[in-house]
Amino acid sequence: MIPLPKLHARTAGGRHDRSAADRTRPLTRAAQRGVTEQRRAPPPSAPSRGLSLVEVRGSQELDLLALSQQPSTASPGAAASPSRGPHLPPLASLPSAARELFLPPGFPESVTPDYLPYQLWSVPTHVTGHLSHALVTSSLLAAVGVSAGPATTVALSASIKWIVKDGVGALGRLIVGSRLNVEFDEDPRRWRLVAEALSTAGMGLEVATSLVPMYFLPLACAGKFCQALGKGMGKPVFRVIQTHFAVAANVGAVAAKEEVWEVVAQMAGLAASVAVLRALEATGNPDGVVTSWAAIQAVHVALRYQALRQLAFPTLSTKRAAMLAAADVARPAGQPLPGVAELNAREPPLSGPWDVRPRVRLGVGVAEAFGGSVPEAGVLEAYSEAYDREGYILVWRDRGAHVVLKEGYGQTDLLRAVWQAAWLDWRTSGGGENSAASEIVGSGSGGGGSGARDALPLLLASLAALEGGFDAFLDGCRQAGWQVGVVHMKAGRSRLRVGVADGPEARAQTGLRPNGVAAGGGPASRDGVSSLDV
């Protein structure tokens, strides 16, 4: 058996554990700029036999140390404002009446810089959307034997919302609202594109009713259900985007002008729909509706994608935090971090958080973190001691970070875990060959058992790097225009309760220094900070 490293040597310089009076780290400069959390104080020293590790998931609690005695245990059930770049289109020639009609009061200072480019791309998006819906309506009417002329189509476009729309549509919205929530705040671009894909699939099914009218009912039901799912995703994302634009807390003004943009596009779309339908009627080819719809919908999706690419979110999601942390650990001294516009342009809109390096999973269970089984008690105690001052336990295996969150963790703990994962990813990928940590790079790929033991030296080196580099990372983010006080990261439901079971009055060690989070509770919202769980 490989001996466990001495865990009291927490830093690269070999400093031993400090006295109780010196253990609490001082507040960083983040405390003066919106991040008000203090670091977790180390627990009182206690013999290993008195350590208590309980995994909590909802109402279920699991004693990990007792479970670890069983072999091959299976898995249990005030932020800185974004920098304003020079990319705003010239508006000097725009008449004042048009400015008042389309733009919020105080433009451009009252909105984010990406507001106008997004709206300019959204107008043709809405136009093609109405064209697409008009062709779908024509196909549905033709499928049930109704004349599909332009006048009839426009007159009956409202009545086509029928049969199962209300029931099936409500079911789709219910599914979205009950299963998804934090995801929309974390990655609105991605989920808006998912919504667009679902809506396109739904309309495609409805258009297909004109080709196979004998299957009208199942196709219409399935199409309406897909569109309801897309609408259920699109509406929350739309609210997120509106709130993002309202940099002066003027959500009402932004929403009012959004209606103006949409109505103008709707009128243009209706006029274009009549013209296209007249042209299709003149050809006498009913199949032309299907091909015309496919072409127009393809243009519509491309325009939607371009509109979403104009957005530049200054808040930190899992993907953006991972990309920033990766840039931070690899950047030469004096090089700034990527700015808001630059990083948003590089962010892959269709990728999930796990597809961006460093790969991080937040809020996993202990068994999942260690590769499918709860490790032996000695490994659990060693990891618990190594992370005694953090709000999480990070296990590095398979080139990814699997993060077990402790009860009472805060948003800063999420960012620290991501930064530590970026450092580990950089070192295990060949970064910093002259560092002492490069000698143990190969030890970070195991899961439970001996692999977890072998990874401990590398993890201790990463914790030492975290102590020295995290505050500079936050400062670099602020200087680049990022709002480090607003974090939107989806975390799993599993939590770890760390305590000392040395008597009938066990002392829970899950409390943080005074920061608004009670011991044993979840993250709270403090001073505009959004710490989110699922």
TrEMBL record:
Region (Disordered), start-end ranges: 1-51, 70-91, 504-534
Amino acid composition bias (Basic and acidic residues), ranges on this chain: 14-25
Compositional bias segments (type: Low complexity): 71-91
Name of protein: Vitamin B6 photo-protection and homoeostasis-domain-containing protein
InterPro entries with a match to the protein in the record: RUS_fam, UVB_sens_C, UVB_sens_RUS_dom
UniProt domain Protein root UVB sensitive/RUS: residue ranges: 93-326
Organism: Gonium pectorale (Green alga)
Phylogenetic placement of the source organism: Eukaryota, Viridiplantae, Chlorophyta, core chlorophytes, Chlorophyceae
One Pfam match: UVB_sens_prot
